[in-house]
Design a protein that fits this description.
Radius of gyration: 34 Å
Low-confidence stretches: none
Helix content: 25-40%
Number of strands: 0
Distance between the termini: 33 Å
Strand content: under 5%
Length: 135
């Protein structure tokens, strides 16, 4: 068996995963930290939101609390780096035509791919002229 014959991990069948922690479950440190925060009664995010909503607090303080809480409430949108360049009068054209090779008959395929035991003259005749043995 050569290296080319060995299947890659993408070619291996998927197996069911057994054991381990379930996806999304908390580890001990995270669970302990969340329990401690819940026991205190007020999370930092809840405090920032409370300051932001307090009508009596100064406007600058409310704005700063809103800026600090925003990443926890509204995640940033993914940025896609795309560069658009070129002439605006001549936009790029996209051609989505698909070229399909013609279907070969069994005889045509055998001429292109000789099998063991086939005479060399048939196999040689099936090859393009530049690949034929000059001998």
């Amino acid at each position: 068996m050569t290296a080319a014959d060995t299947p890659t991990t993408a070619q291996l069948p998927k197996r069911r995963k057994y054991g381990g922690r379930k996806k999304g479950s908390r580890n001990k440190a995270t669970a302990a930290r969340e329990a401690e925060i819940a026991k205190s009664g007020l999370t930092p995010l809840q405090y920032m939101l409370r300051v932001m909503r307090d009508q009596k607090a100064p406007k600058e303080m409310r704005l700063e609390a809103a800026k600090s809480a925003a990443p926890y409430v509204h995640p940033k949108l993914a940025q896609i780096a795309m560069e658009h360049s070129g002439d605006p009068d001549k936009p790029v054209e996209h051609n989505h035509n698909v070229t399909v090779r013609p279907q070969l008959t069994k005889e045509e395929w055998l001429k292109l791919h000789p099998v063991a035991g086939q005479s060399n003259d048939v196999a040689a005749a099936a090859r393009p002229a530049d690949q034929r043995d000059p001998g």
